[in-house]
Amino acid sequence: MRVDLPADRRARLIAHLQHLFAKEFGEDLNEFKAEAIVDLMLRTLGPAVYNQAILDERGHVNGIDGDVFSEKDRPTTKEKER
Description:
Layout: H1 7-25, H2 31-64, H3 77-81
Helix pairs in contact: 1-2
């Protein structure tokens, strides 16, 4: 699963990462390196965060109306642990 960000959000994230590296590590992070880090984080963390958000939302919806999902559609304990 590929996670794409709108150009403006991506630019803000890159600028934030550059600021973080300068402030916390005293290192200048050029735009190329910052983009590479953003791409890496989106590839590695993006799918896990997305899947967790889906499971959280299912839990929220089930909390509102317990019969929204049939028993076969409910997340299993194993899915909840991901």
